[in-house]
Design goal:
Order of helices and strands of chain B: HHEEEHEEHEHHHEHEHEEHH
Structural class of chain B: alpha/beta
CATH topology of chain B: Rossmann fold
Order of helices and strands of chain A: HHHHHHHHHHHHHHHHH
CATH architecture of chain B: 3-Layer(aba) Sandwich
Low-confidence stretches of chain A: 1-6, 407-411
Oligomer: heterodimer
Shape of chain B: globular
Strand content of chain B: 15-25%
CATH class of the largest domain in chain A: Mainly Alpha
CATH superfamily of chain B: P-loop containing nucleotide triphosphate hydrolases
Largest sheet of chain A: none
Number of domains of chain B: 1
Number of strands of chain B: 10
Number of helices of chain B: 11
Structural class of chain A: mainly alpha
Number of domains of chain A: 2
Strand order of the largest sheet of chain B: 6-7-8-3-9-10
Number of strands of chain A: 0
Radius of gyration of chain B: 19 Å
Distance between the termini of chain A: 27 Å
CATH superfamily of the largest domain in chain A: MetI-like
CATH topology of the largest domain in chain A: MetI-like fold
CATH class of chain B: Alpha Beta
Number of helices of chain A: 17
Mean pLDDT of chain B: 85
Radius of gyration of chain A: 25 Å
Distance between the termini of chain B: 51 Å
Chain lengths: 411, 277
C-alpha cells in the first residue's frame, strides 16, 4: 500500500479514510483526464480478458499428462536408460549449491517461501507419479540442510570471516559442479554426446561455454584496453567480428565447416558435434563478456593501479587482486545479462539438430495421443527458463551488494 | 626467497655505478655532501610531450630527514614526488633510492617500490577490501609474510594511527580522515625506509587535518625518512628538516625552516610565502 503512496490508515475511522484515499488515488492517477480514463479502461479490459482466458484454460482445458509422460524426454532427452546414475549426483549437487549460495548471500524470505509453496503445489503433481520420484526426495533434504548450514556458518563465529568463508565455499561448489558433471558423463565408458539432450543439454552447453568464455572474455577486455597496439587491434577485430555474426551462422560453421579449417591430424576435426557447438558458444559469448567488462575496467580509477604499484604489487598482482575484482563488480549487471542470454540462446542448438529441451517439447506435440498439447509443454519450458533467469538476476544483485565493499553493517 | 634476484639486482647496480663513475667526476663530490643519502637526485628532467615539467632537479635527501616540497600549483611538486617511486618515469638524470638506481630494470623497480611507501591525496584505498585486507595485502603477496603475522601487524599499525576499532570496516564506511590514517598504516605495513606523501591533507575537512598532521609529526619524530608535498605551512615549519621551494619545475630555493620562513633569499620565495601565509 505504501508503495503506491497511500498512507496506512490508523485514525479513529481507518476504513473510511482508506477508502477515501483509494478513491482519490484512482481519481488522480488513473482517471485524471478523459484520455487517461479511456486508456485505463482499455488496458484493464485487455488485462482482465487475458487473465480470464488463461485462468479458464488452466482450470478447464489444460492437461499436463503430456509433461508427466514425457518428463524424461524433456529433462534429459534420449539419455540411455540405466545411465541415470551419472545425473542424479549432479542434481543433488545443484540442489546443495543453489541453497548454500542462497544461505551465504541472503535469506529465504517469507515471500520466497510462499512462492515456493505455490510453485510446488502447481508443479509437483504434474511431475510426480513416475519413475525417479523417490530419488528427488533426498534433494529436498540436502537443499534444506545446505541452506541452514550456510546460514549458521555465515552468522556464527567472526561475522565477516564466517560470511566470507561461506561465500568462498559457495564459489567452490559451483566450480566443482560443472567439471564434475562432465566427468560423470565421460567416465566408465561414457555416454555418447549425441545422446545428451533435454534440459540437461542446455545446462551443460551453457555452463561449459560460460566457464570457457569468462577467462577468454577477460583477456579480450584487457587486450582491448591495453596500451599495446597489436593486442588492442587484435582484440577489437575479434570482438567486432563475433558481435556482427549471427549465432546460427556460428553454429552452422561449427557443424559443417569447421572440419575443413582444422588440420586433420590428431582427430581435431572429428571432435564431437556437442563439443564443437559448445566451443562456438564460448567463442561467441566471450566477445560479449569482453564488451560488458570493458566498461567496468575503465570505471576503475587510475589511482587504484597506482596505489597497488606503489605498494610493490607487480602488474599481474595488481590486475588480479585490485583492478579485476572491481571491474567485475562494476560490470556485474551486464555480465549477468550475458549469462542469462547465453542460457536462453542455448536453445539454438536446434540449428544443428541437437535435441535440447525446446526440441524435446516440440517432439512431444507430435505424439498422436498428445496432439495439440503444445501450450502446456511450452508453458512448462518457459517456466523453467524464467525461473533460471530470475534466479540468476536475483543472485547477481545480491553479489553486487556483497562486492560493493560496504556490507560490514549489513547481513 | 631473496637470494637469486637480489644478487642479480645488486650486480646490476654495481655495474651501473662503475659506468657512472667513469662518466663524471662531479658525481663523486655530490656523494660526499651527505653521509648517508636515502635519495639522490641528479639533474632530473621530465617532459610531458612538449611541456618541460622538471627542469633539472638536483638534491640529496638523508636517511631520517624530513623534506617538505612546496610551491605554486603547476610547479611539478607531485611529478617530482611520483618520480621517486617511478609512478612517473623521468626522461634524463639519475634517481638513486637507497643505493638502487631507478631505471628500466624491473628488479630495481621492485626493490625501490618495496622500500618506498606512498600516501596519496585521495587515499586510493582498495574499496573492495576491508581495512585489514587493505593493510595486509602487500605484506602478504609482495613480502610473503604469513597471513596471521601480517594481520597482527595490521592491528598494531591501526592502533598506532589511532583507529584500531575500524579494522573490519570497508573504506566506504570511513570518514576522510580515517581513510587517510588507513592509507598511512597501509604504507607503513611494508616497513618502508622512505615515505612519500602527496598532499596528504588536501582532501580532508579541517577537523581531520589536525589529526593526520599530528600523526605525521609523530612519524617524523621516529626517524622515518619522509618527503612531503603540502600546503600546510605551519605544519611544514614544525616538521621539516629542510624545505624545497619549487616553481616551474626548478628548485628556486632550499633551506631549513628558519631560513625559508624568516630569511628567504629569493624574491619569488618571499612573494609566494606572503601570498599563502
Amino acid at each position: 500500500m505504501t508503495a503506491l503512496g497511500l498512507p496506512v490508515g490508523s485514525s479513529d475511522r481507518p476504513r473510511a479514510a482508506a477508502v477515501e484515499e483509494a478513491r482519490r488515488w484512482l481519481r488522480t492517477r488513473l482517471f485524471n483526464s478523459p484520455g487517461n480514463s479511456v486508456l485505463t479502461v482499455v488496458l484493464l479490459t485487455g488485462l482482465g480478458w487475458i487473465t480470464w482466458t488463461f485462468a479458464s484454460w488452466l482450470a478447464l482445458e489444460a492437461n499436463f499428462d503430456v509433461i508427466r509422460a514425457n518428463r524424461r524426454l524433456l529433462l534429459v532427452g534420449r539419455f540411455p536408460l540405466g545411465e541415470e546414475w551419472r545425473i542424479w549426483p549432479v542434481f543433488y549437487g545443484l540442489a546443495i549449491a543453489v541453497m548454500w549460495t542462497w544461505g551465504a548471500f541472503g535469506r529465504v524470505t517469507l515471500a520466497a517461501l510462499v512462492a515456493f509453496a505455490v510453485f510446488g503445489i502447481l508443479v509437483l503433481p504434474v511431475l510426480a507419479g513416475a519413475s525417479g520420484t523417490l530419488e528427488t526426495v533426498p534433494a529436498f533434504v540436502l537443499a534444506a540442510g545446505a541452506y541452514f548450514a550456510a546460514r549458521r556458518w555465515a552468522h556464527g563465529r567472526g561475522r565477516i570471516e564466517g560470511r566470507d568463508r561461506a561465500r568462498l565455499i559457495a564459489g567452490a561448489m559451483w566450480a566443482v559442479l560443472l567439471p564434475g558433471s562432465i566427468v560423470l558423463l565421460l567416465i566408465d565408458g561414457g555416454v555418447d554426446p549425441a545422446l545428451w539432450g533435454g534440459l540437461y543439454l542446455n545446462l551443460i552447453v551453457a555452463s561449459a561455454a560460460l566457464i570457457g568464455a569468462l577467462p577468454f572474455g577477460i583477456l579480450l577486455a584487457l587486450g582491448r584496453t591495453s596500451s599495446f597496439r597489436a593486442l588492442r587491434v587484435g582484440s577489437t577485430v575479434y570482438i567486432e567480428l563475433m558481435r556482427g555474426l549471427p549465432l546460427p551462422v556460428m553454429l552452422t560453421l561449427a557443424w559443417l565447416a569447421l572440419r575443413h579449417f582444422l588440420p586433420s591430424w590428431g582427430g581435431l576435426a572429428d571432435v564431437d558435434l556437442v563439443y564443437r557447438v559448445t566451443i562456438a558458444f564460448g567463442l561467441f559469448t566471450a566477445a560479449f563478456i569482453a564488451e560488458a567488462l570493458r566498461g567496468g575496467l575503465s570505471a576503475v580509477p587510475r589511482g587504484q593501479r597506482e596505489a597497488a604499484s606503489a605498494l610493490g604489487l607487480n602488474g599481474l598482482q595488481s590486475l588480479a587482486l585490485v583492478v579485476l575484482p572491481q571491474a567485475v563488480r562494476n560490470s556485474l549487471p551486464a555480465l549477468a545479462g550475458e549469462f542469462i542470454g547465453l542460457f536462453m540462446m542455448s536453445t539454438m542448438v536446434a540449428v544443428v539438430g541437437l535435441t535440447d529441451i525446446l526440441q524435446a517439447a516440440r517432439a512431444t506435440t507430435e505424439q498422436p495421443e498428445y496432439f495439440g498439447r503444445q501450450k502446456e509443454v511450452l508453458l512448462f519450458v518457459g517456466l523453467i527458463f524464467w525461473m533460471t533467469a530470475f534466479g540468476l538476476s536475483r543472485l547477481s544483485s545480491r553479489l553486487e551488494r556483497a562486492l560493493a565493499g560496504t556490507g560490514s553493517r549489513r547481513a | 626467497m631473496t637470494s637469486p634476484h637480489q644478487i642479480e639486482g645488486q650486480h646490476r647496480i654495481e655495474s651501473q655505478h662503475r659506468i657512472e663513475d667513469g662518466r663524471t667526476s662531479v658525481v663523486a663530490t655530490d656523494h660526499t655532501a651527505i653521509a648517508d643519502p636515502a635519495i639522490v637526485l641528479r639533474d632530473v628532467q621530465k617532459w610531458y610531450g612538449k611541456f618541460h615539467a622538471l627542469k633539472g632537479i638536483t638534491t640529496n635527501i638523508a636517511a631520517g630527514e624530513t623534506v617538505v616540497v612546496f610551491g605554486p600549483s603547476g610547479s611539478a611538486k607531485s611529478t617530482l614526488l611520483r618520480c621517486l617511486n617511478r609512478l612517473e618515469v623521468h626522461d634524463s638524470g639519475d634517481i638513486i633510492v637507497n643505493g638502487v638506481t631507478l631505471d628500466h630494470h624491473v628488479s630495481n623497480l621492485a626493490k625501490v617500490r618495496r622500500d618506498v611507501g606512498m600516501v596519496f591525496q585521495h587515499f586510493h584505498l582498495f574499496p573492495h577490501l576491508t581495512v585489514r585486507r587493505n593493510i595486509t595485502l602487500a605484506p602478504q603477496v609482495v613480502g610473503h609474510t604469513p597471513i596471521a603475522e601480517a594481520s597482527a601487524r595490521a592491528e598494531d599499525l591501526l592502533a598506532r594511527v589511532g583507529i584500531p576499532q575500524l579494522i573490519d570496516m570497508y573504506p566506504s564506511d570511513l570518514s576522510g580522515g580515517q581513510m587517510q590514517r588507513v592509507a598511512i598504516a597501509r604504507a607503513l605495513a611494508m616497513e618502508p625506509k622512505v615515505l612519500l606523501l602527496d598532499e596528504p591533507t588536501s582532501a580532508l575537512d579541517p577537523e581531520s587535518i589536525r589529526g593526520v598532521l599530528t600523526l605525521l609529526e609523530e612519524l617524523a619524530a621516529t626517524g622515518m625518512t619522509m618527503v612531503i608535498v603540502t600546503h600546510e605551512m605551519g605544519f611544514a615549519r614544525q616538521v621539516a628538516d629542510r624545505l624545497l621551494f619549487l616553481e616551474e619545475g626548478r628548485v628556486v630555493e632550499e633551506g631549513t625552516p628558519d631560513q625559508i620562513f624568516d630569511h628567504p633569499t629569493e624574491e619569488r620565495t618571499r612573494r609566494f610565502l606572503e601570498q599563502i601565509l
